[in-house]
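User: Batch of two.

Assistant: Item 1 of 2:
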Amino acid sequence: MILASSWLFSLWAMGRLPARVPTHWNLRGEIDGWGSPLMASLLLPAMATGVYLVILAFDWGRMDFKAARDMAPRTTRQVRLLVVLLLVGLHGLILWTTMRGGLLHSSGLMLLLSLFIVGLGNLMPRLEPNAWVGIRIPPTLENREVWKRTHRMGGRWLLIAGLIGVPLSLLPEPLANLLPLLIIVLPLLMATVYAYWLRHHLDQTSSHLPEV
């Protein structure tokens, strides 16, 4: 329903857009790419639909991991919904701002991204090893204990970072454009380092256990 609504809104907005529509912004928030109304209206809905179908293909397939367990269907649906909401929300924000004759500012994009990070951080502790979502690195995929503890810790960091990002999205553009580094890169980097440390710690602990 969300994807269908995005397509309908795009078709409705297509005839109301100017001849040139901004389609890309650089790291400073300046427009460096333009497209036709047709491209601007249909590109993101097509991408969102494609991403959704790829995720479904992963979820329906049987991917073999050493520590794999099936995720709860409810958790899988919530993650899919979160990804679709991010893409559809971004698309709607761009089209609505353009139709009203304004320029898209970083504050709206960063607010949307911060809310997405809050939702992802809330879901992280419920993820199981799978083919497409989570901190998928050797320590987490090889050991379910490392996976669970890393995602509990990483989810907490992402949740805090997303909540911090909501008010910080109102900062002036040069500063607001640094938010992805704060709310995405830093928490995931910390979680990755933690996963490798935890695997080493567990290996050291098991090697000191007496043999029976």
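Item 2 of 2:
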Amino acid sequence: MLKFISVQFFLLFTISTVWGAGYDETLARYKIWPMASAAYSDNPAQCITDNFADAKFVGQYTYQCDIVKDDTCSGFVAVSNSDKAIILSFRGSTTAAQITAEVMDELLDPPSPFVGGGGVNKYFLDGFNDVWNAGMRNDFLTLKNANPDYDVWVTGHSLGAAMASIGAASISKLGYVSPDKIKLVTYGQPRVGNSDYVAAVDTLVPYSFRIVHAHDLVAHLPPEGMLGYIHHKAEAWYNNNMAVGSAYTICDADEGSGCSNGNIDLSISDHQSYFNVSSGFAVNGCPGYNPNH
């Protein structure tokens, strides 16, 4: 009898590890990923219309975020009435100069203080604050006040993922939305802050998944422990091409050893493709991507 119970426990553990207790793949693949991709577009409204039955594009906010004129940080706000969700999406890097500036901050500058506790990368924090103060905050608060029962989905890819992490934690810490109403889902997220920041995010944003594609290089930057940087939980790791039906592993821990953290063979191409489409696939809309539309 004891042996039978042990086998049952092993099977249940395996299923929850491979298929992800609490992780909603349909949400991550078909609804939030197109929004992360659409942030790369100058017209994100097109993908919002393509992807949701009853949605509205509210505004896009772009701001120069370092000394190079063409280096901007950007994000947009939308609302899906059918999902009862306010959507905040942040864009990833767009130029080689911007990536260089990020890396220099990651390697040289100690984490900057975060309102919720701990420290975060200065470039990520400045980028979030620039976009937030360029109109995103005001439009978000207007939507939130008009729809107090709506959830808040926060997302982004690469640099946008780091900004999304800071954004979701800030919204929770400042009391704009209760933690149980926030869903943070990111793609190819670099390490954002130190251990105190990680502890804050784990408390402030209970539904948080960093989706990592196989050997994605950016998910390993900055190197673990450098200047104190580590990942917050949880990770959804797809060690495959992420096609429909692909298996994944959930590591419900900071720097979960059973997920991508063990990789030494890293790839930039895996960073540029999620769910078997390029990171910017929604630049010209995303008709037909969501089968549930």
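The first strand starts at residue 55 and ends at 64.
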